[in-house]
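Structure ticket #2291
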Amino acid sequence: MKRVLLGISGGIAAYKSAELVRLLRTNNYDVRVVMTHAATQFITPLTLQALSGHAVHTQLLDANEENAMGHINLARWAELFLIAPASANCMAKLSLGIADDLLSTLYLAAECPVYIAPAMNQAMWSKPVTQENLNRLIHHQVSMIGPDAGSQACGEIGYGRMSEPSDIVAQLNALNAPQLLLNKKILISAGPTREALDPVRYITNRSSGKMGYALAQQAQLLGAEVTLISGPVQLAAPKNIHTLYVESAEEMYAAVMQQVSGQDIFISAAAVADYTPESVPTEKIKKQGTHTQLSLRKTQDIVASVASLMNKPFTVGFAAETHHLEQYALDKLQRKNLDMIAANWVGRAEGGFDSAYNALQVYWQNGQKTFTMTDKNQLASQLLTLIAERLNA
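Resolution: structure written out below.
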């Protein structure tokens, strides 16, 4: 668990710090919070204490500290120092080495990497003196995250918005992730398929694609070159990842087989339809009678087809089960000649389809590992770390 010290300076963007703390903890960071006096006017220390699980620090000289040197103790504790939001005033003080409160003193005392997420009015951001301060901080090896352009609290539009907490955490992960999959090519399928019944109806399933997308994003953070093949989902396109969109099982099969050559790893996280209609009329089927029948044919098994290739990649399947999870997962592992299978329960109250959380039971030849219920991004990171270990083994 990486130790991150979060500094919060005074600005309206301080309200985003609550979500930032939550996401940092979800991504396995141990978070301690430091606030300026101005920051406490926008969000209470109690809120951040509840979210971080630790007391919030606001005073430079704290008699409650064992040696009355809280700034030194915190600076030595931190493995990473993030200041978000970093106001124009905060950036000016840091760039000039002014240390008149706990946050600015910690900056001087910290020996770990420092990141700042600027947040201010667009006119303040574009002011030459702010840009001079920015360049001075960059020269001092401070890393910038943002700012973004867009509408601001004052009603103006331009650069100066603090980056969204999810983007800040993603960049921290990318900058600090061990490159376990550096130079590896990974093909990932995600989401459901839709099998047309007629021009307006289709058969599908409850897969949201969240697990596959999380795997793609985490694989990129670990240094991999990622190709994502996605069925129809309600998710934003992952940044800087080559993504192909398909709809039917047939289209997904064709896309996977076209892209699989030269891949080191294939992760079949998509929930592909096992059956598809035998024929699809060109006109909408009209309602008639009390019963109807559909003639279905079996779809091509994508993960088994990849696993049967002469020069197959390390092939990972998924098994979503409502019962006999281990039995069915091990059967698929052997029958489809997979290198690994990740099995999870569905149809239960927590985790699985359309949830931000999941748990996995992972099997390979003569081995298994359990990943308990957690956020799918964290779960994806855990699974990919295991895949990297098995691939190297």
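Closing remark: The radius of gyration is 25 Å.
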